[in-house]
TrEMBL record:
Keyword vocabulary terms for this entry: 2Fe-2S, Iron, Iron-sulfur, Metal-binding
Name of protein: Oxidoreductase
Gene3D superfamilies: Nucleotide-binding domain of ferredoxin-NADP reductase (FNR) module, Translation factors
Superkingdom of origin: Bacteria
Cofactor: FAD
A Pfam family matched in the record: NAD_binding_1
Keyword Transcription recorded: no
Gene Ontology molecular function terms on file: 2 iron, 2 sulfur cluster binding; oxidoreductase activity
SUPFAM superfamilies: Ferredoxin reductase-like, C-terminal NADP-linked domain (SSF52343), Riboflavin synthase domain-like (SSF63380)
Length: 232
């Protein structure tokens, strides 16, 4: 059981939630947790959420985008308050993860709230002092829909960020608004010849489009790790 210590607005429909979880112990960047809600009539709903934080400790950060048809995300975004308790299980997952011991180039590709596990990797990379080259392609509808925008816009010597806006690009942006394409991946991602490890996270359609394009560009399928989400 965890206790909510703070909630921060990330977008009109997104919130980041900091939770103290006694006994958590820590997690690897990219892992997730199951959140279980129980109604007064005994009905339960369980959903998996990626953890935006990484490392040793009993405090974690989640970031949640409200799904209009969701059972759990509307509660977490609109109803949850500081001091509330949440039933959590984890950390979970051992494949879609990054550790500072990995030395190969890392390409991160996120769509919307799919940035969350990638953010844990970015933070772990920064905290460890790793000099492994990291690149991020982050696709969002508009600048106002970006999670962790201020943090991602802070200069970092070992992180290169490229923004893809699908509905409205800000003034001065050289790329017109539109969905991510193979040309974007080729122009701003590590080439397949360098054999980077690629992490792709976002809605199912986004992940399938990106993964297919990466393989067509020559990336080995077993080096393209994917995680997708959507309504229940």
């Amino acid at each position: 059981m965890g206790v909510v210590t703070s909630i921060r607005r990330e977008s009109a429909s997104g919130r980041s939630i900091t939770i103290d979880v006694p006994g958590w112990g820590g997690n690897i960047a990219g892992q997730h947790t199951d959140v279980r809600l129980t109604a007064s009539n005994g009905y339960t709903a369980v959903r998996s959420y990626s953890v935006a934080s990484a490392g040793v400790g009993d405090r974690i950060e989640l970031a949640v985008d409200r799904l209009p048809s969701g059972e759990v995300s509307p509660y977490l975004v609109d109803t949850l308050r500081e001091g509330d308790e949440l039933e959590l299980r984890g950390p979970l997952g051992g494949w879609f993860v990054w550790t500072p011991q990995q030395a190969e180039n890392v390409q991160l590709i996120g769509g919307g709230s799919g940035i969350v596990p990638l953010m844990a990797m970015i933070r772990s990379h920064e905290a460890s002092g790793s000099t492994t080259p990291f690149r991020l392609l982050y696709s969002v509808r508009t600048p106002l829909d970006a999670f962790f925008r201020a943090e991602l816009e802070s200069p970092s010597a070992n992180l290169e960020v490229t923004w893809i806006f699908t509905r409205h690009a800000p003034s001065g942006c050289s790329r017109p608004a539109g969905r991510i394409t193979a040309a974007d991946l080729e122009a701003h991602g590590f080439p397949a010849a360098l054999a980077p490890t690629v992490f792709v996270c976002g809605p199912t359609g986004f992940v399938e489009t990106v993964a297919t394009a990466l393989v067509a560009l020559g990336h080995e399928p077993d080096r393209v790790k994917t995680e997708r989400f959507g309504g229940a």
